[in-house]
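Submission sheet (multi-component)
Chains listed below:
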Amino acid sequence: MKEDNSIQNIDIEELLLSKDYDSLTMEERSFADTQVDSPQEYSELRATLLSIKQVSSDEENVLIPHRIKDELIQKMESETTFFGGIAAFLFPKDVPLFRKPGLQFASIAMLLLLVVNIGISITDRPNAELAVNNIKQQERQLPLIEEEKKEEGFYDIEINNQEPEERKEVIAKPEVQLIEMDDEVFQVEVEKVAPANSLQVLEKESNTKFKKEVADAKSAGSPAYFDTKDITSYLEEDIVVTKLTDSVVVTNFNQSVAMADVATTRMRTNESTTVLMESVTLDNISTNGSKKKFKSASKSLKENEELIDFLFVAM
Amino acid sequence: MRKYTSYSDNELMQLVVDKDSRAFSELYDRYSQMLANYFFKMLWQDEEKAQDFMQDLFTKIIEKPHLFDLKRNFKTWMFSVANNMCKNEYRKQSIRKNTSYDMDEGYQIKDNQASALDSLQDSLFSEKLTQELELLDEKQKSTFVMRYFQDMSIKEIAQALDLSEGTVKSRLFYTLKKLTVSLKDFAPQMAKVLLLLIGLN
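Outcome: structure written.
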């Protein structure tokens, strides 16, 4: 390019600023002629350039508020502190809000927190629901179970939050336990039963009194009395039930005892003495439905008839 | 202790890298006005925009001082950054066509209203020059402004714009010719030249 090569060596701008066309040397004029079409153009270019120089020198400066420097210095000083540097790194001013690293970190942290919380709530929910259902099912079924299992004496609690094949039948062992015991031991146990206490005491007293009278009669050789114990054992097989009274169920803690089949037999002696004999069959209701019968026999005297009637009424 | 005013630009910049706020303050005092004027000329005579851009440039210096190559001339590096900022702004504005900065219509009206009688007035020339500068393309404008409004040497301009000195000279001369055609009726010096020519005759 002609323009480029010529200007490399001689600076046309210097010529225009310093000399008019007529003042140029021969060498300068020959160079100027390669750049301009005519001396007039040279003059016009010079005039324009001088005017521009004048205008630029007269140009007023842009007003710069002092706050800009203050802000920049403040920023510079904040950069020097450790936390200021971190803050400047996390929240730079010249980037959009969504591109600020601090905001991005905070968003990620919140997202993670949210995910973890949702995860925890999701994993916990099924159990919570099953637990709620369990309670409802139990509440709903308990009365039925009680109805169904009443006689058997145990509760069948089904765990409904498990699969049917996995359900476990939780058998609440009846608090009633079958105890085989001798008559004497049973008698002692029966004595412990509160409602029967008074009866037993009275019966015991009357028996003691009766035994004493019998013993006295024997020792006196009186034929009016005989040993009821022997008769009781003799009549055990052939006892005639004349009257079936109401059953009385006595509960001693976990043990149910039914006093039933109370038979009253009137036996005549030679002396036409009426001997009242009671045969009490105690049913022990067991959880498996089987019954074990305990039999107990007692005798009472004619003079105790009133007392015994009272006791029956009481029962 | 050595005064910061006696430090060279690059020495000060080295201190700025080490977070020396006083060195930064000294650099700001040296170049803030120059940069504000440059932005003002380059960005449609918008004073607020010029202030904002100047502040942004110094903010970049604070935040990323390590981007400055200490082997380079600080002034030319700073003007190259400023020039790139202007380029980006031009791109933004070119996307937003028909903005308030599209002053072609305004120029036309003023051209029509211009009177030959006012051509000798400096103020009119200045105004016309400003308008004509706006019509230049970005490369010519930046070169011209750096040269005649920032008093930068051909070498400095070449470094700032990453051009050869010959290209800078050529670009300047070509721009001068173009402006002369449009400003010849307004140039005060032209009137003197014409008067001189008449007197000689």
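Remark: The mean pLDDT of chain A is 66.
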